[in-house]
Amino acid sequence: MDIIHVASELAPVAKTGGLGDVVHGLCKELVRVGHTVRIILPKYDTIPRSLLQNLQVHMRDLWSYDGPNCYHNTVWSAKVDGLDVLLLEPHHPGYLFSRGAVYGCPDDTDRFLYFSRAVTEFLFKSNLKPDVLHLHDWQTAAIPALQKEIYEPLGYSPLKTLLTLHNPEHQGKCSPEQLSKIGLRGYECLDSGKFRDPLNPALTNLLKGGIVYADLLNTVSPSYKKELLEPKGSFGLEEILLENQKKLSGILNGIDEDFWNPETDPYLKVPFPAHTPFTKEKWKLTKKNKALNKKELRSQLGLSDSKKPLFACVSRLVEQKSPLLIAHAFEYVLAKGAQCIILGSTYTKEMLSFFSSLQEKYNGKGEGVILLDYNEELSHRIYAGSDILLVPSLFEPCGLTQMIGLRYGSVPLVRKTGGLLDTVSNRNGFLFENPVKEELSSAIDFASDAFEADGDRWEELMQYGMSLDFSWKKAGAEYVDLYKKRPPFS
Ligand code: ADP
């Protein structure tokens, strides 16, 4: 099949979280099984030039619209980790993608609306007719409407669109005028059957419009699909999702087992076998080398060589991830005499100041370290060196860190929600139900006792977790089946 992805993230060149990993891992799998795949993303100024191979101009004269103005764009082609990538560079006075960051600007909706229009213009001008146009989250959710409302009437044959909902908490709410600026009729878009926001009827909502206009929809785990159809878990979208549920499926993400491979991971002090079956010898080596990684991690972060478990958390520190529970777990673990590392990226002043004060209190003074940074290398070392990985999320469409933890022999302790439910069970980790301190503390007690009590039982837990297949093979095949679906999608 010929598949074009349009996304705001692609690991490793533009990643802020799981979306970048997912686009990268899925595309690699689709290429591996013989499909033609291209990925279109903005040419952010933060993309390291060294990660782009064969960078060259693909189209020099692409004009696109922003209200009454028309701006010139260059489309570049390049290879990223063997994948074919097209990078859109707008020559726009707002320097839309030269902001030193992927997101976080007050005009984010304008930036990605401009991108969406320019991409559809590019597809049209290039007369590209992929079998499916795969879109990701609100940033690209206006594309199906642009296709249907503007380009189909121009005679551009219909493209089948699939919109994946990676994190429907973020919906791209904006004013109808902003949609008018990219050529859609903003006030007509305010229709309840189009882009009208379900919670604020004066606003348009890009994700909602995507749900209405896309031919196919999916989210990133079967359990989260169920949650999305309930008022509690849908961020106001349950009605429109129920209306469109025939189009909606749930496909559990995979992880890129080449990138997340303890056997070849260049960031580790020493590699260790992760693939089953574990012979006695192989398992001995895994234990020995994982212990060396733990020793190195402890020494790097100034922690002692204790017999107690080393807990860790690698996360964006945003509401979704239960930052207060993460902080509680950190202090609770230390009070028990065990160790804890948090590697967290912060996006608001409040969160930065909250965790900075914990940092001041604990870093360098005992058995806990908080690092407020996005650090790819350190994240790998933490997965490899830790014993227990904390994921107490409030909601979690899929979650990748628990799967990475499982592969690196770091046993996950998670809340029973979304994709965490589809990947963690009593056979490979620890779960708690309600997002409250007491339940998290009990789960920490339980996990910590299990670690200290019975070495054989702990090793069984680790081995079973490491034996699970979270590669993209299964998910890749499910996506191909989905790409082949035709209306009425029954
Ligand atoms: P989300 O996409 O909601 O952030 P996921 O669990 O799906 O959560 O994916 C998180 C990805 O981002 C993982 O690859 C994880 O290792 C990485 N990550 C999260 N926070 C950090 C950080 N502070 N430093 C390095 N990597 C991080």
Walk me through what this model shows.
With 490 residues, the chain is of the alpha/beta class. It has two domains: 2-254 and 474-484, Rossmann fold (3-Layer(aba) Sandwich); 280-470, Rossmann fold (3-Layer(aba) Sandwich), CATH 3.40.50.2000. It has 17 helices and 17 strands. The strands form three sheets. It has a nine-stranded mixed beta sheet with strand order 3-4-5-2-1-6-7-10-11. A six-stranded parallel beta sheet has the order 14-13-12-15-16-17, with helices on both faces. It has a two-stranded antiparallel ribbon with strand order 8-9. Helix 1 crosses helix 17, helix 2 packs across helix 3 and helix 9 packs across helix 12. The longest helix has 22 residues, at 280-301. The protein is globular. The model has no long low-confidence stretch (mean pLDDT 96).
